[in-house]
Amino acid sequence: MRVRLDEVQKGRRGEALGTTSLTYRSGRATLAVAETEQRPTVLGLIASGRMRPDAGTVALDDATDRRAATRCAVVSP
Asked: CA 38, 55, 58: angle at the middle one, nearest 5?
């Protein structure tokens, strides 16, 4: 399954997460850089389907089980 985030944003004028595009696929590790202290968490919540973006789209390709999209890990240094 592939998950695509196209120009997603969160917060007023993108304060919580600026315009971000990302594609990740099940079975592969993907590195996405999101600067500032809240942005990695916000990006992870949107990518996993636990939070809706204020702008942009999140699409699942080839998904037979929509719950599979929520199985992702966010690692922050």
From this structure: 85
**In the predicted structure, residue 56 carries a pLDDT above the cut 60:** yes
What are the pLDDT digits (tens) for 27-42? Answer: 887 878 777 777 888 8
**Model pTM score:** 0.75
- Strand ranges (E), the chain: 2-10, 17-25, 55-61
Please, are residues 44 and 69 in contact by the beta-carbon 8 Å criterion? Answer: no
Q: Cα(first)–Cα(last) distance of the chain, in Å?
A: 27
Task: Compute the distance between CA of residue 54 and CA of residue 10 in angstroms, rounded to an integer.
Answer: 5
pLDDT at 21: 92
